[in-house]
Design a protein that fits this description.
This protein is an alpha/beta fold and 278 residues long. It has 10 helices and 8 strands. The protein has an 8-stranded parallel barrel, surrounded by 7 helices. The longest helix is centred in the last third of the chain and has 17 residues, at 189-205. It is globular, with a radius of gyration of 18 Å.
């Protein structure tokens, strides 16, 4: 069970479904993830994943995929890795996210691009404010009807966790100031630790508790890296403060090969204890 080390959880990125039979791939990946013991399953957003027309054809809609996964899973958390939030009308995005949270019974985590101009929707600050306005207050008693509300409120209170991406100083400050954590790309542990310190400092300066923020880090599983090496990388990330690590296999792997890779890495990680970084 990859949750054996209490300081860090493991998640996996969805195996990219081929156009021939995406429901079967979604179902196989979800069932394998729960059977192996992974904590979370993450899907990409085609707005960001598609590399031209060919890439777009291979990508399913992220939130529709999560709704499907919510129906065929029981305990695993479901997340976006990552959502191009600024491309969506805020009120409709609020309805879609709340719907997934309802269908999953409160298992949604939103990894969201933090770039202020990554789409026509404008700044992420305004987007998160619009989501909160659409969903109402912080507690059930405070959730008075909101003007223009188009759909349900999420199960999670005050909202599903929203983890913001980015490496620039402005993006890191934003993650600490308004996000529920930092959704970090792979990089050297020293750089990751330095940027995570900035996120936490920004949270403290905004009057928030830095210990309430989550650090979620993506790790690519290339073919030449053995499970033991990956396990040591995960332990190092836990030492920095990562609460979760998302493993991503290469897109060119078959479904069976990808799931086997996820299983062997989970077994290796279980045996390695997190080590603090000095």
């Amino acid at each position: 069970n990859p949750q054996g080390a209490p300081a860090v959880h493991l998640g996996i990125h969805l195996v990219r479904p081929p156009s021939s039979n995406p429901p079967a791939v979604l179902q196989a990946t979800a069932h394998a993830a729960e059977a192996i013991g992974y904590r979370s399953l993450w899907v990409g957003d085609p707005v960001l994943d598609g590399a031209g027309p060919a890439g777009a054809e291979r990508s399913l809609d992220a939130l529709a995929s999560l709704a499907f996964l919510a129906a065929i899973t029981q305990r695993i958390r479901l997340g976006t890795n990552v959502l191009a939030g600024a491309w969506y009308p805020p009120e409709l995005l609020a309805r879609s996210l709340a719907t997934v949270d309802q269908l999953s019974r409160g298992r949604l985590t939103v990894g969201m691009s933090s770039a202020a101009s990554d789409g026509p929707g404008g700044a992420v600050d305004g987007l998160l404010g619009a989501l909160e306005a659409a969903w109402g207050g912080a507690t059930p008693d405070e959730r008075a009807p909101a003007a223009g509300l188009l759909g349900p409120r999420p199960v999670q209170v005050p909202r599903p966790p929203i983890l913001l991406t980015g490496r620039s100083e402005a993006e890191l400050d934003r993650a600490g100031r308004i996000g529920d954590g930092w959704h970090a790309a792979p990089e050297a542990p020293e750089d990751l630790a330095r940027r995570w310190h900035r996120v936490r400092r920004a949270a403290a300066e905004a009057g928030r508790d830095p210990d309430q923020l989550a650090l979620v880090v993506r790790v690519r599983l290339d073919g030449g890296t053995g499970p033991a090496t990956i396990a040591r990388q995960v332990a190092a990330l836990a030492g920095i403060g990562a609460s979760e690590v998302i493993l991503e296999v290469d897109d060119d792997r078959s479904l069976d090969a990808a799931l086997a890779r996820y299983a062997e890495v989970a077994e290796a990680v279980e045996a390695v204890e997190p080590q603090p970084i000095g």
